[in-house]
Amino acid sequence: MARPKSEQVRQAILDAAHQLFMEKGYTATTIGAIARQAGTAQSNVYVYFQSKFDIGFAVFDPWMRQKVTELEEKVGSVSDPQDRLHTLVEGLLHGIASDPSGQTMTLVQVLATVKPSDEYDPELLMWTLERIREMIGDILPGASPAEHDVLTQALMLSFDGIALRQNLRREEVSDDHGISAMLTLMKPYLDREKPAAKVAEAG
Amino acid sequence: MARPKSEQVRQAILDAAHQLFMEKGYTATTIGAIARQAGTAQSNVYVYFQSKFDIGFAVFDPWMRQKVTELEEKVGSVSDPQDRLHTLVEGLLHGIASDPSGQTMTLVQVLATVKPSDEYDPELLMWTLERIREMIGDILPGASPAEHDVLTQALMLSFDGIALRQNLRREEVSDDHGISAMLTLMKPYLDREKPAAKVAEAG
DNA sequence: TGTCAATAGCGAATGTCATTCGTTCAAAAA
DNA sequence: TTTTTGAACGAATGACATTCGCTATTGACA
To answer: Which pLDDT tens digits describe chain B residue by residue (203 residues)?
Structure first.
């Protein structure tokens, strides 16, 4: 009832935040700057979002879903299993986790500065895990579900690790070694129908 | 020359910071609180440390070295290679990365809030990498140096990933799957002298 | 078509921090 | 002793996220 929130204003705030996060990072972006860029009052931002944390997540969430969806298409368009795996790992760890536009930095800075009052919903994490498990299942139909889980978990863990390092943006701390390491660790699964390791308690 | 800095004061600040970081986390701990707890003036803290970042790192660094050293001893005391690998991965990822005292949260929050003016020195990271590579070399003498690198990089990446998630402290986001996944991925290296994967570009 | 009540929108606070300033005073060097 | 350097300190500064009190709009209802 009464005066409704404007979808335009909401989107303007998200767009402004998105652009500023890319330019300066989440921490260095102020609510005042977001409001100015969005053409509204600083205090009005709080009519649309509960907190800066909220904005950060609202910006990252659709970006991440978009990227993962694109990756699914890309992986789907490759036929050779070895190339598919390479595309998946490379795309996830290089293309998304160490994405140069800085969206991943947003995620890290958002997650690292959660306050108890911020409500973190792991739904995006679960959704992403699901997509990756599915892609891995497609690439390695011979492996067991437990093995799919193992590879999925390891990939997501690496994703988070690379994201954290990305935040440092130091030449000395390159991601390349880590990425090729994960690729190497996963490769053996391509070569067998029933891999040696059935230890997987993951599930 | 002139009045020298007091090692006592410096240590008091570090101790106070250490305790408060464990209790409330890095972000939620204020310089004022550290000073009060250390029995000195807030401004005097800046005589001993350049910034809050500096303090965070000065607290984390010796803790991490201690933990890694303990892990080396623990791994060294185990004889069976399979148990050694298990001890290493479990100790690194469970014992250190998801350490409940909150030191890892300190690391994550410190790294995630670096400002350009903060001088991050990757020396601790390099030192840790070196120790882990050495342990892996001991456990898998049959593997090539390139393979040692691969496993080291993958382990450190997982370490960072688990540390980031640890910061969320949510039941839904457990580390166990990720840890056992890494263990599973590494196990095959125990069973062969010359593993299939020689793809390792890492080095 | 007019009135009411809810609430978007806004400018000016608040409150919390890290960090800096200006001054004082202890101790090393002369 | 005297001088000089810099530790110690209380009081600013300057950034921010977030809240407050008020005004203006707009949907619902008469």
So the answer is: 689 999 999 999 999 999 999 999 999 999 999 999 999 999 999 999 999 999 999 999 999 999 999 999 999 999 999 999 999 999 999 999 999 888 999 999 999 888 888 889 999 999 999 999 999 999 999 899 999 999 999 999 999 999 998 887 666 667 889 899 999 999 999 876 444 444 443 33
The CA distances from residue A163 to A128, A187, B176, B200, in Å, are 15, 23, 20, 22
CATH node for A52-190: 1.10.357.10
DSSP string, chain A: --SPPPHHHHHHHHHHHHHHHHHH-TTT--HHHHHHHHTS-GGGHHHH-S-HHHHHHHHHHHHHHHHHHHHHHHHHT--SHHHHHHHHHIIIIIIIIT-TTSHHHHHHHHHHT--TTS---THHHHHHHHHHHHHHHHH-TTS-HHHHHHHHHHHHHHHHHHHHHHTT--TTS-SHHHHHHHHHHHGGGGS-SS-S-------
B158 touches chain A (CB under 8 A): yes
Which chain A residues are within 8 Å of B52, Cβ to Cβ?
none
- Which chain A residue shows the shortest CA-CA distance from B114? A168
Nucleotides of C under 7 A from a protein CB: 5-13, 16-22, 26-29
B115 touches strand D (CB under 7 A): no
Q: Domain ranges in chain A?
A: 1-49, 52-190
Query: Is the domain covering B52-191 a CATH 1.10.357.10 domain?
Result: yes
> Residue A201 and residue B178: Cβ atoms within 8 Å?
no
Q: How confident is the model at residue A108 (pLDDT cuts 50, 70, 90)?
A: very high
pLDDT of residue A171 exceeding 80, the answer is no
CA distances from B122 to A47, A169, B81, B135 (A): 42, 12, 31, 20
Q: What is the pLDDT of residues A77-99, one digit of tens each?
A: 999 999 999 999 999 999 999 99
A153, A203 contact by CB (below 8 A): no
Q: Residues near A140 by Cβ (< 8 Å), separated by ≥ 6?
A: A81, A85, A147, A148, A151, A189, A190
Q: What is the CATH number of domain B1-49?
A: 1.10.10.60
